[in-house]
Amino acid sequence: MLGPVVNALTVIVCSLLGCFLIRGLPERFEQTLKKGIGLAIIYIGIRGAMDNERPLLLIMSLVLGALLGELIDINKRMNSLGLWAEQKLYKTRSDQTAPVNTAANPGQGNKSFAKGFVSASILFCTGSMAIVGSMQSGLLGNHETLYAKSILDGSISIVFGASMGIGVLFSAIPVLLYQGSIVLLSMAVRDFLSPAIITEMSAVGNLLVAAIGFNFVCLPEDRAIKVANLIPAIFIPLCYLTLTAH
């Protein structure tokens, strides 16, 4: 659970910095931070993928995983889930806000809190990095991906905290619960997996981490790799090696 805890604490600390110490941070700082962290993510992903011992299985996993992911369209479903959560939480906040005749806009504080909480929670939880990094933490005890994600989330938390307020801080709760659940589930099944299966699953996962880095560094949003649609590729080595072992 070290990776999710570090990620959640980073969000809390950096949100406080953004709320109370930093105001009006230029967007160019955020963009430069993203590209620098993206380079580090590419390095971490490629280095981990080099542990692969079955290159053909890795290629097959990516091909079959991409076909399955596009068939399900995981990326679209994750985006739809994020939009649904945003609409529901905003509606809940709006319904709970009593109309008060003041000089300020009624309920503006609640709306600001909801905006920060929802925007940060969706961004930090629905990305592929959270899933892949948490699986690596649970299966291998390797927290590097979640540490890199913590730095990225922290830099974004500073910017969001400065512009959206204290609600960003509370996004640490769903981050911890979501990533922690994936870690615990991965730990629960780890003892049933052979070292070869874990190695190959991790290699595919690390390659997806590298893809996330490429998205940050050099690919425009309309041409970005849909990493979420490649997530099924992580489980292809599990199926293949399990079937061929008997």
Description:
With 246 residues, this protein is mainly alpha-helical. Helix content is 76%, strand content 0%. Helix 4 runs antiparallel to helix 5, helix 6 crosses helix 8 and helix 9 (195-217) packs antiparallel against helix 10.
Structural class: mainly alpha
Q: End-to-end span in angstroms?
A: 34 Å
Which overall shape is indicated by the principal axes computed on the Cα atoms?
A: globular
Q: What is the helix/strand order? A: HHHHHHHHHH
Give me the number of helical elements: 10
Kindly provide the radius of gyration, computed on alpha-carbon positions and rounded to a whole number of angstroms.
19 Å
Largest sheet, strands/sense/barrel:
none
Report the oligomer.
Answer: single chain
**What low-confidence regions span 5 or more consecutive residues with pLDDT below 50?**
98-111
Number of strands: 0
Helicity, as a percent range: over 70%
Strand fraction: under 5%
